[in-house]
Amino acid sequence: MEDPLFNWTADVDHIKNDEERNDKIYKMNRYMLGWVNFQLINGSRGVAIGIKGDNDNLIGCMTIIPSSCTKVGFINTIRTIIKLGIPPSHKPENGYGQHAKNRLNVQEEIPKARERIMKEHKRWIYLQCIGVHPSAVGKGHGKRMLNLLIQTADSLKVPLYLETESESNEALYKHFGFRTAEKIHLCAEGDTVKQPMWLMVKDAKV
Question: Could you tell me the pLDDT band of residue 1, with boundaries at 50, 70 and 90?
Fold first, then answer.
């Protein structure tokens, strides 16, 4: 699994068995995606847009949130905890690395940076997640979804915001007109391994 943020969060470099390591990364991926998307998919915070393949299977999806819904309230947080339980990294018996718990907690810095960067805008759209199934990569599905979002933002004359975890993705989004507003490095207390994050904005169409 290639998501740099999820892999970093899991802290499984100490595990030499590939199958065991991938299983722990998968469980962390599942939890983190569930956390950020649970309230959105049930319709309380934003919108999920998907693309179906030839067999009517979901092959791509993006989740977007309007600026009025980017802050997660206390009640919604409690509901999500009840639905998902505690993170797998917070259970010692699961065998995650010593920094996994703190690496997950330090990601609270991401929404703080988002609100700081976008505070000057009255309205904006947050591209929370976008992805395509490995079997459908390279067929233009991601481009179609991103162009749809850009067209929507342009018609509303509002900026777009996103976060990404790799230089290759940064270059990709720049191709679509995004600029890097800030680069941060996540690092948990007592940890030496940092995870870079590129915080990007596509300015509103004038």
Answer: very low
Domains in the chain: boundaries: 4-202
On the 0-12 / 13-18 / 19+ scale of CB atoms within 10 A, 90 is: middle
- Which residue type, as a one-letter code, is found at position 194? K
For residues 105 and 38, what is the distance between their CA atoms, to the nearest angstrom? 18
Q: What is the mean pLDDT of residues 110-135?
A: 93
What single-letter amino acid sits at 34?
Answer: G
* 17-65 per-position pLDDT tens digit: 989 999 998 898 888 888 777 766 656 678 888 898 888 888 999 999 9
Euclidean distance between CA atoms 137 and 94, whole angstroms:
32
CA distance 7 to 17: 15
Q: Is 115 exposed, middle or buried (0-12, 13-18, 19+ CB in 10 A)?
A: exposed
At residue 135 the predicted structure's pLDDT band, cuts being 50, 70 and 90, is confident
* Domain 4-202 falls under CATH 3.40.630.30: yes
